# Entry
Amino acid sequence: MSDFPAAKKRFGQNFLHDEGVIGAILNAFAAQEGQRVLEIGPGQGALTQHLLKSGAVVDVVEIDNDLVARLHQRYPALQHHIHHQDALSFSLNDLKLANHKVRIIGNLPYNISTPLLFHLLTQKEHISDMLFMLQQEVVERLAASPGCKAYGRLSVMVQLQCRVQALFSVPPQAFKPQPKVISKIVQLVPYEKPLFDIASLSVLENLLRDAFNQRRKTLQNSLKGYFKAEELIALDIDPQYRAEQLSVEEWVKLVNSYVRAD
Ligand code: SAM
# Structure
């Protein structure tokens, strides 16, 4: 790998070099021949080279000019499948999936991981599953249950749309250069049918923002712009509860009641 350029901090470049960890990630993903696979941020190809060997049809999205040039040189099998783009604006329509769904994998740049997840979720009808390496703290938020400290806006928004499974942690020593944080692998599987029917995701975003920005306040206070205490009680929701005590289903109930009353 010595002919690759030095890591660039602004692109969150921490390259995997621990073969044991690389093997564990690939085992968890288990790419199969003929599947459509998209890797986000292939970097120097630590995961890519093995994905190619699986016989899957692999596309990659990489933002860094220098890495794109090296990937072209090093992996001829990727010709026409390297998308030199910002993953935050990449459209899965560019993959010409026809009726297929794509499996997505990535050791993601941590500085864009949350907006990237939201960007991908807007295209979830094209995605069969995703396996990502993220900062451990973000995985804890994704997978958190109501009542936990880590439970918040991200947990509700993502759990409504995907089955979330935290897999295993990866220490800084597995990367070059080493990040300052512990990383974790998470699997996200978008639901074929929504877990609960929700009238408006944007209303949910607003409610979550107002309630979790004041997470120490009771719902009666933090959501007073939306509901009277009696209305919460009528929905079987205790007005003395705080945002972190409501399940995903209860958040949906609030949204649907608010939209219908509007
Ligand atoms: N997959 C490689 C590995 O595991 O060694 C590299 C992982 S590194 C943490 C993140 C990769 O994402 C880098 O190659 C970086 O250039 C790329 N990247 C950063 N921001 C990006 C963006 N907005 N769109 C696409 N790729 C990006």
